[in-house]
Every structure is written in C-alpha cells, then in structure tokens.
Request: fold
Amino acid sequence: MFKNWLWILLIFPLFANAAYERNVARPVNEVVFGKVDSVRYLTQQDIVKAESNGWETFLGAVVGGLIGNQFGGGSGKEVATAVGAVAGASIARNRANQVYRVEYKLVELLIETEDKRLINVIQDVDSAMLFARGDRVRILYFNDGVRVDKEY
Reply:
C-alpha cells in the first residue's frame, strides 16, 4: 500500500506539471514549418529526495508505542512502550527520507526550417508522436517555450 502511494506521489506531479498539455487551448506566438534533419532519443535521470514533514515520524512513534505497550508489565511495560515509540519513529523517519530516481524520456530534434535555418529542440517524448528523419513538422512558439509536432 505504501509503495502505491509513493508511486502516485512521485509520478503524478510529472504529469500534473507537464510543460505541454494536450487538449488545452493557449495562444501561439509563431508557427515555423520544417523537416526533421536528425532525431535522437535520450533519457535523463534526476535524483529526488523524499523529505518527511514530521507526520510520518509522529505516526511511526505512535504505532511503535502501541506495539511496545503490548509487552512487559509494570515499569517494564513503560520501558517497552518508550522503546517501541523511539524505534517506530526512527524507522518511519528513515523510510520517509529515502532517495529515488525519476527517469525522463526526451527527444532531441534538429530541424531545417523552410527558410534553411537549423533549429534544435529537446522535448518530452510523446509515444503517440514519434519522429523520424525526413518528417515534416511544425514548430510552435509559446510565451513559455516551444513544442514540435508533426505536420498533418
């Protein structure tokens, strides 16, 4: 269950903050047409450190204390509760501060425009739009970046 939530927390932001969203209208500043001269598919890995906000540690201490409270009797029960709380907090804190790798799939396109300029663009790979040398493309310029897609 924890791994499912972890994947959701790590992967969902990649889609939610994507630089380019399909089916969203936004103004285009300029459109340039050209032909793909070369294509190179790349992968980039980023190291992401998941940081604890304290709740994981607190919940670990509570669960550890509840488990520790099941053992011993008298003052031994209090010691077992304290040891369980410390152990639970420590385990939760260590698990919450792990490092993960996130892999991005990118495509680098060298495009010769109709007026014979060369433009190089690196963008996220869209599995529904794979490029090959010789493809006719359009380069869309936006306020916050550029996007290449096939000319249809």
